[in-house]
């Protein structure tokens, strides 16, 4: 039976899509890949065909949709360690990603932030299309699809202390952090990607809900648990003709399947796997590729370099247990109480994870006064 009489999400196997030719091929089913695939199939060209290839499985269980439990859910998390480097204090730092349809939007903190207009104006000095007036309409378009809410009704005795601490540092306490005129530093209530029902609004739910996936099943083929091992290149024309892919559990020594593209191959496999696919295809820094005995198709120095990430470090604050999420672990009664509150009226601690934050730049602190 087809939707709405069937609850099965329409997933294709690699054998169903191999040897086919599509208009576009989207590699990577995270936030970028899900949104692009969705935009392509609901465009004015109703006959456009798109396969969306994702390394991880499809999963949309309740634990991955309840805000608090989904942040702690590491069912499909993959922990990679970077090579020790001077920039990391010669340590192998953990890099955490989520391999499933919807990507990191299935387990991140759900925080939605536009960033400050001043940054876009600075970028616009070199690339005019990145200036704030050009970018702001796209934020508005995203916000028509991705649902946002603030969980400022969550009660915790710690929050008043956090706000008073911010005020003592000279920071404003703001309720809205995404207004163009919002200060760049302060204590903010955060906009979270939570839907009207109180559940996590991941990229999967926002851009590829089950109804849309069924309605467009003839032109959108969602293929999970697939590894893309390289690109099919025509070096004489400098074009990409398709991709090579195989089941995620299959030995890499076996022959991969070829999927062809009429128009474009779009790589949205993340900051690590996208350059990896390019490098395996011979696109990257010549010295590195030759050291790995990969034939060089195009010598591009920037591929696989300049990865930027933000560090996280804990700040420990001693509080009464009833103001800590540890209360849910220590007390089965409290855990049951908050589960019941969420299930019945969408309230309680399960409705949120990180819903408030202090933003400031440490270099702006006056070392003598301690103020900003």
What does this structure look like?
The chain has 372 residues and is an alpha/beta fold. The protein contains twelve helices and 16 strands. It has helices spanning 14-17, 31-41, 67-72, 117-124, 132-145, 158-168, 203-207, 210-215, 270-280, 286-291, 326-330, 332-345, and strands spanning 11-12, 21-27, 50-53, 77-81, 94-98, 111-112, 173-174, 186-189, 191-192, 220-223, 226-234, 239-247, 257-267, 283-284, 298-299, 356-359. The strands form five sheets. Strands 1-10-3-2-13-12-11 form a seven-stranded mixed sheet, sandwiched between helices. Strand 2 (21-27), helix 2 and strand 3 form a beta-alpha-beta unit.
DSSP summary: helix tally? 12
Low-confidence stretches: 1-6
Helix amount, in percent?
Answer: 25-40%
Structural class by SSE content: alpha/beta
Strand content: 15-25%
Largest sheet report: 7 strands, mixed
Rounded mean pLDDT is 88
- Run of helices and strands: EHEHEHEEEHHHEEEHHEEEEHEHEHHE
Number of strands: 16
Distance between the termini: 62 Å
The 3D shape can be described as globular
For the largest sheet, list the strands in their spatial order: 1-10-3-2-13-12-11
Calculate Rg over CA atoms.
Answer: 23 Å
Overview in brief:
The protein is of the alpha/beta class. It has helices at 14-17, 31-41, 67-72, 117-124, 132-145, 158-168, 203-207, 210-215, 270-280, 286-291, 326-330, 332-345; strands spanning 11-12, 21-27, 50-53, 77-81, 94-98, 111-112, 173-174, 186-189, 191-192, 220-223, 226-234, 239-247, 257-267, 283-284, 298-299, 356-359.
